[in-house]
Amino acid sequence: MRLIDHFVVGGNGGGGGQATRHGDVFNPSTGQIQARVALGDQALLDKVVATAQEAQLSWAATNPQRRARVLFRFKELIEQNMQSLAELLASEHGKVVDDAKGDIQRGLEVVEFCCSIPHMLKGEYTQGAGPGIDVYSMRQPLGVGAGITPFNFPAMIPMWMFAPAVAAGNTFILKPSERDPSVPVRLAELFREAGAPEGVLQVVHGDKEMVDAILDHPGIAAVSFVGSSDIAHYVYKRGVDAGKRVQAMGGAKNHAIIMPDADMDQTVNDLMGAAFGSAGERCMALPVAVPVGEETADILREKVIAAIDKLKVGISTDPEAQYGPVVTAIHKQRIEDWIQTGVNEGAELVVDGRGFKLQGYEEGFFVGPSLFDHVTPDMSAYKEEIFGPVLQIVRAKTFEEAIELPTRHQYGNGVAIFTRNGHAAREFAGRVQVGMVGINVPIPVPVAYHSFGGWKRSAFGDHNQYGMEGVRFWTKVKTVTQRWPDGGAAGDSAFIIPTMG
């Protein structure tokens, strides 16, 4: 059986055949174990951090333009290997190959942005801030950074993290999800092939033991995390208590507000992809539809039922499938348990996706599309993130009621409004208490030169992912005040705070 090892300097670093613990990696389409992944420990991390610290000194001393050239070559290698990367990703995650390509492409866009790192690291300069005094600032790397990434985007989110970190002169240790670890390792191999020195990007595998070791290690200066909100809060608190800079992105329950004047056919088409694409395993999925007015709700319901009837669920390599299986049997059971919870709480289960079987792949981790209507804000199935192919309709009587639903929800990652009314869209965007807003855009993940980040329990920390926010997170500002004496007589000693007057 294939073994997925760590990608670290000096071979397997205690992993591989020497590892005392391993995890199973499944093919979600068949339900069968296809590989085993070596799980690391504190001793392995100590070696990896020491290597990263040594490599960071020379990497930071490499001028930004040369670091950018490595990223340019890395981008080219990913493009050349896009098909094989997508197939590998799909085989472990379960998302269809075209969706896997999108996963890789959205990460690659951040790599492209980071190729401009020489410009982004420029500081500020003031000539003549005082008599013969100039002041300037510079952005410098933090040292060794680490990323802890989730299963649902095994290519995109690692690149969101390590691209700005290494571009800025840090070295990086990636701890991907043990459920689909192969693509992160392959990315590190390609980065090394692109010309990065050994130790600049290393990959370690593990479970909570490795996560805690990363959060506690004194040699790691900053940690970026994406996962569920409870774990994000844990990571943030433990990392900050250990003196680290931490950004921790959590869960979501994104809403789609559907106004009576919306283009209903386009809205339903967008909802199908946003709610059911990637089997709903996205933190920017759109699992809650909020039609305004009973007539709008009734029209939406009928059109969604008809659209669900046309959805095709298939294996990850089926070019006609619109989404594939979920990642594990445990996660499949969790989704189906949430569906039952919704029923128990009194929501109307209009379409039941439980018990879905695909001929020839009966052991695969498939969940059919499910639709609830008459969901209310007091239901736990509405309050919590299901993270599966489940769409819930929460009916709102007015625009004011609709805007209050995402505003008052515990999560604040993304939200969308569908309308032809510019005033309503502008009012909504300004007032809703959510970090990312789409206007007739179902999944408003910002482009690479802006930044990604939610509010409330969807994010912990002061900086968003990628864009200039990412550069700020992975750097620290140093400000220099300089004076060059002109050779005149020395002045009197100053015992008061200096001023520039």
Automatic annotation (TrEMBL):
GO terms for biological process: L-valine catabolic process; thymine catabolic process. Gene3D superfamilies: Aldehyde Dehydrogenase, Chain A, domain 1 (3.40.605.10), Aldehyde Dehydrogenase, Chain A, domain 2 (3.40.309.10). Residues 21-480 form the Aldehyde dehydrogenase domain. It comes from the Bacteria. Its EC number is 1.2.1.27. Keywords: NAD, Oxidoreductase. InterPro entries: Ald_DH/histidinol_DH, Ald_DH_C, Ald_DH_N, Aldehyde_DH_dom, MeMal-semiAld_DH. Pfam families: Aldedh (PF00171). SUPFAM superfamilies: ALDH-like (SSF53720). One of its GO terms (molecular function) is methylmalonate-semialdehyde dehydrogenase (acylating, NAD) activity. NCBIfam families: MMSDH (TIGR01722). This is methylmalonate-semialdehyde dehydrogenase (CoA acylating). The lineage of its organism: Bacteria, Pseudomonadati, Pseudomonadota, Alphaproteobacteria, Sphingomonadales.
